[in-house]
Amino acid sequence: MANSWTNRVKFLVRYMYDIDNNGVLDKTDFECLAVKNTIMEGKGSWDATKYAKNKEVMINLWDQIAEIADFDKNGEVDSDEFMKGVETACKGKAYADLPNAFKFFIEAQFRTIDVDGDGSIGLDEFRYDCVNRMPVKEVTELDAAFSKISLDGDITLPRYQVYLYKTI
Ligand SMILES: [Ca+2]
Ligand SMILES: [Ca+2]
Ligand SMILES: [Ca+2]
């Protein structure tokens, strides 16, 4: 289990948070995520109100992550620090007891994947999100992953919360 826990956290850091791919998390990653999520939610359009909200959420998330995980206080969180920090803050807790910023982040991620805004992630939306995050060799890998996570062909927000939280 120790191994898969390590790999999951590394995956999360690399594909979800470290948007500029420099191997560490810092404030810039979260500023970029706020812009990215705003544009993705708006399917290319720009909404200054949504951006203000997204930015607040992301900066808040960064502040919390830095507080939890930037052990040497150098303004960056590497994957070892992140792992240690997330383990301390989240492991063994129910989803409802997670730090608020984590929950907001998960909900914001969900909205960027649910492109048509119908409140659930379908197979098409799932595939689209995955190929944007990572190299995929065979579409069957994605379809198999989707069938494991989804229920009746959909991933609803509560299901996504639980799934992503387990991934964390
Ligand atoms: Ca980075
Ligand atoms: Ca650090
Ligand atoms: Ca949808």
**Computed CA radius of gyration, to the nearest angstrom:** 16 Å
Helix content: 55-70%
What binds here, in terms of ligands, is: calcium ion
Tally the helices: what do you get?
Answer: 8
Strand content: under 5%
CATH homologous superfamily heading: EF-hand
Query: Which structural class fits the helix and strand makeup?
Result: mainly alpha
User: Which fold name is given in CATH as the topology?
Assistant: Recoverin, domain 1
What is the end-to-end distance?
13 Å
Largest sheet: 2 strands, antiparallel
Unreliably modeled segments: none
**What is the string of helix and strand elements?**
HHHHHEHHEH
Would you spell out the secondary-structure blueprint of this structure?
Layout: H1 2-17, H2 27-41, H3 48-69, H4 79-90, H5 100-113, E1 120-121, H6 123-133, H7 139-149, E2 155-156, H8 157-167
Antiparallel strand pairs: 1-2
The structure holds calcium ion (3 copies).
One calcium ion (CA) binds next to loops.
